[in-house]
Amino acid sequence: MSFGTLYTHKPNPRTTAILAIAKAHGLKLDIVYAERENKENYEKLLQINPLGQVPVFVGADGHVMTECIAIALYITSQSDTTTLLGSSRRDYYEILRWMSLANSDLLPAIGGVVLPLIGKHLAVRKNTEDCLRAFYTDCKLLENHLQKNKYLVGDQLTLADFFTVGTIVFAFVVFHKVLHAEYPRLTEWFNEIYEMPMFKDVAGDLHLANIPYPTLPEDK
Question: Where in this chain does the record put each GST C-terminal domain (predicted)?
Fold first, then answer.
């Protein structure tokens, strides 16, 4: 029996961790790809979320939930034995902290750099240089944190790790050379999480691109 329906795009960095954890927990989700080009599915999406944003989860009981962090936490909490939500109240809020950073800072910065390379643009007014600078600032933050911690929340693997890796996959596809050179611990952590079967089974093989990518003026 289906646990519910997930409206998303293919691919969608904000959905990868949700799908991985649902699969690991044995929760069957019906997937609806609702890009604007798919008019029928997009109309269905607008009926449940007038903003037209994904992901959106519709439970088997008809309950509608929007926002990727809320959906990820809800799916993860369906297991009474999961350790992905930490082992203390502090852990839980640290998980929220890193998920929020990945969603609101990392992903928009990555999108502002990567999307123009494939002919798309962010909805916000932020140029490539600003996005790239913000992305590297976040990478430095993660690098410094991961040099002192095995995972984002101490030494325990949590939802925050899967969620954050899901948001930065496209950055590693494009910027893998500079990330490997400048942020070795971040790269090591990313590869460890990505190669975990429960994540890779959903995300698929990582295909690194060898294409020209933007640089900052001081790097030229």
Answer: 88-216
